[in-house]
Amino acid sequence: MKQKDNLQYRRFRLEADDFLTYLAGLGISILTWLLVFGWNFDLIIPGHDGLTLDLPYLSELARSKGGWNSILYRSSWLGGMKLYSVTGLSWVLSFLIRLGFTPYTAMNSFIFFIQSIYAYLGIKSVSSLLTLWKGRPVSLPWHFKVPLIWVFAFAPVIGWRFCYGHSTVAMASQFFVSLLAGLISAMAGT
What we know:
Layout: H1 2-35, H2 49-63, H3 83-87, H4 91-98, H5 103-134, H6 142-153, H7 156-163, H8 167-188
Helix pairs in contact: 1-5, 1-6, 2-5, 4-5, 5-6, 5-8
């Protein structure tokens, strides 16, 4: 019985550490945008396609209180466009709009969400690889996690996508990153 309690405690500690790592990634991403890049809450992070496609799309979604039926087809766009079929709708953006977020706030929050997930998955992969390499469970100290959060959350490959307003592409690529992180974690038993 004692061994089972010890195992449950270890699992709880691992899950709590994972959750704190995610929250740290979220907080550090927002603080980095504020303090390093000079961003403020009146500015929108995505550019190009984010401004020309996503922002009007989300504005229409917000006007309909999150009802995606209103964005299926727009006769006023490009001579008639099946908007939903072309651009799709992320569940995160839909959820944020339904919560009452403005389109600006929803788009920026979506970026923070993506960055924090990338940071979490990257750190999880690093700690799992270290566990495999050393042959015992390894928990990264915070003075290693913070720089790794910056490396993974602000990786040029996803930053480039954000600048061009392709945040859904960055979100979709997380599928492959999640598979890799899950595989490594399963191999390490973490």
